[in-house]
Amino acid sequence: MRFLLLIYNEEVNGCTGTPELFEEMGAFNAELIAEGVREAGEALEPIVTARTIRVRGDRVSSTDGPFAETKEQLGGFYMLDCVDMDETCVYAARLPAARFGSIEVRPIMEISFDS
Fold first, then answer.
1. Strand order in the sheet with 2-9
2. pTM of this structure
3. What Å distances lie between residue 48 and 12, 13, 40, 44, CA to CA?
4. Domains in the chain, ordered, with CATH?
5. pLDDT of 66-85, one tens digit each?
């Protein structure tokens, strides 16, 4: 099964991490690759670069920044292919960013768009 690990943390002055954290995340990433579970993973630019789009009827609106008003923002993600939620949560707990933020674990809904 595929799962997303959504990494949330509090941005401070637009910065989402320290050099030491990025080094730890690189090591974690290498472990995921070596263990054969990593499908994808990326860090996101700070929230000041985000834009939220909404469509209501014929009206399209665009707002600078993220949708939610919260202290923690989505900072990045990993997509893993694991046996089940329990195995995925073990990886989530190993993620260095879990020490100061939160990791949301979500199963990916497998939908076929082939007709």
1. 38-43, 73-81, 2-9, 102-107
2. 0.82
3. 12, 10, 24, 11
4. 2-104 (3.30.70.1060)
5. 666 667 788 899 999 999 99
